[in-house]
Design goal:
Helix content is 30%, strand content 30%. It has 203 residues and is an alpha/beta fold. The strands form 2 sheets. Strands 3-2-1-4-5-9-8 form a 7-stranded mixed sheet, sandwiched between helices. It has a two-stranded antiparallel ribbon with strand order 6-7. Helix 1 runs parallel beside helix 4. It is globular. The protein starts with a helix and ends with a strand.
Length: 203
């Protein structure tokens, strides 16, 4: 099964509360936008966001220049249906992030639990190159993955665990580290996953 087929299958067979990453309120991500005083007209992209509630929250907060990228058309359809007429306020992009060729540059690149699915050094380097070229100078990269105390797999797929040092090894040449912290995520199945979140600013 290809990567795209895998994710189409996930989003066509599972309800939103039947996946481990479900959050009704993505508070950690919301706090990032508040803490860093991200302007309401900033170009913001959520990468691999699926049908998460980040777009709902950002629209409620008054953000007006929003993009959502996901490999799964099923995921995009689900969030479009949930947002209703508000979906017209978001630019949706169906693509593998490694094939993404941005037409605009972003002030914020948000990635919660997508980056860690890249397990080869070649894919990680390619992702970093795409991110670096897609973000404006002084723009932000906010990335969350499983920590070294987190799971080794997600949705049946191998992942790459991260530490603060490992994040800096990947992104430090082009980004300044702003903050880094770990946090437990409670899944809908009453299990705990330890995440690490890092904020970087483009040099």
């Amino acid at each position: 099964m290809s990567k795209k087929e895998h994710w189409e299958n996930v989003f066509s067979t599972k309800q939103e509360t039947e996946v481990s990453w479900y959050q009704k309120v993505p508070q950690t991500s919301i706090d990032f936008f508040i803490t860093n005083a991200i302007p309401k007209d900033a170009a913001v992209i959520d990468v691999g966001g699926g049908d998460s509630y980040l777009m709902d929250s950002l629209l409620e907060m008054g953000y007006s220049n929003l993009y959502l990228l996901d490999i799964s058309e099923q995921a995009i359809d689900r969030i479009k249906n949930r947002l209703g007429v508000k979906a017209e306020l978001v630019t949706f992009i169906i693509s593998d992030v490694l094939d993404f060729e941005p037409k605009v540059r972003f002030e914020v690149w948000h990635d919660r639990a997508s980056f860690h699915f890249l397990t080869s050094s070649e894919d990680i380097v390619k992702y970093k190159s795409i991110v670096t070229n897609a973000i404006n100078q002084n723009g932000y990269l906010f990335v969350g993955t499983f920590s070294e105390n987190g799971p080794l797999k997600c949705s049946g797929l191998e992942i790459t665990q991260y530490s603060e040092a490992k994040f800096n090894d990947v992104f430090g040449s082009d980004f300044e580290a702003v903050s880094c912290f770990t946090e437990n995520h409670q899944t809908p199945f009453n299990t705990t996953q330890n995440f690490i979140f890092s904020t970087f600013k483009k040099k």
